[in-house]
């Protein structure tokens, strides 16, 4: 609710704060139990920061994060620690968070021991069970991270999150580093796990065609703000924000009789330390007017749980 996460920029000899990177700049949304909420936008728009802040892996700047009604940024260290297994994250590159000298089985079991969720004698069985659920084999327990392919490493990353028996999982670009053929396998795994374990997901991706397969609702972020949100069907059928339209137009359509004009956005995403005035998208928007440079568009409910922030809608 009105979540902000700013990172201070320091400068000069005294390292005073000279500005802020407004990574997340006042966004509000809900994720319902059992759903898969997709958060999309170009890299650098603040998606990962949202993911980490709602899990309290990062402290917020302001706003509130409620998890089942509980203000998690107000919890003590101990209460947060006991809640931690319930809310897990899967990273884009699990390899970077695996110690190359620790056997994969031990790395997966570590958190379980840490949280005191298992007796040491049952640990290995539990890890092997989780490896299998994630499409790996019992003999992988004793292997080292470098012995695995990209897709297998992502299975390890998922196993590490899953072994804690979470309710809510943030998947931060979990397939972006993988070959397209492997992407589908990992998406299917995540989808199966969701059904079997009744998981709730927030699935972060810069690729709308990836969230299309997994998500029921989608939020579109641009430069720290939520610019559009709605059900997947609504968003794909009736995108309202010019930015969403541009993102959608970049997805190839398999049917050659259907024509969709590709909207190419000019320029790069501006710096979140110095965002454009008015509508932050105005420097790249193909239909911007003078008003857009001056006034911040209100984030409005268009009915049917479809929200959008644009003067022209
Ligand atoms: Fe484009 Fe203006 Fe709408 Fe922003 S408010 S998306 S600049 S038309
Ligand atoms: Mg990211």
Could you give the topology of this structure?
Elements: E1 3-11, E2 16-27, E3 36-40, H1 47-54, E4 66-67, E5 70-71, H2 77-83, E6 87-90, H3 104-114, H4 120-133, H5 150-162, E7 168-172, H6 180-197, E8 200-205, H7 208-214, E9 217-222, E10 225-231, H8 232-237, H9 242-249, H10 290-294, E11 300-301, E12 307-308
Parallel strand pairs: 3-8, 3-9, 6-7, 7-8
Antiparallel strand pairs: 1-2, 4-5, 9-10, 10-12, 11-12
Helix pairs in contact: 3-4, 3-5, 4-5, 5-6
Report on this structure.
Keywords: ATP-binding, Nucleotide-binding, Transport. This is Peptide/nickel transport system ATP-binding protein. Belongs to the ABC transporter superfamily. InterPro entries: AAA+_ATPase, ABC_transp_ATP-bind, ABC_transporter-like_ATP-bd, ABC_transporter-like_CS, Oligopep_ABC_C, P-loop_NTPase. It comes from Paenibacillus sediminis. The chain is of the alpha/beta class and 313 residues long. The protein has one domain: 3-Layer(aba) Sandwich (Rossmann fold). Helices cover 31% and strands 20% of the residues. It has an 8-stranded mixed sheet, with helices on both faces. Strand 1 and strand 2 form a beta hairpin. Helix 3 packs across helix 4 and helix 5 runs parallel beside helix 6. It is globular, with a radius of gyration of 21 Å. The model has no long low-confidence stretch (mean pLDDT 93).
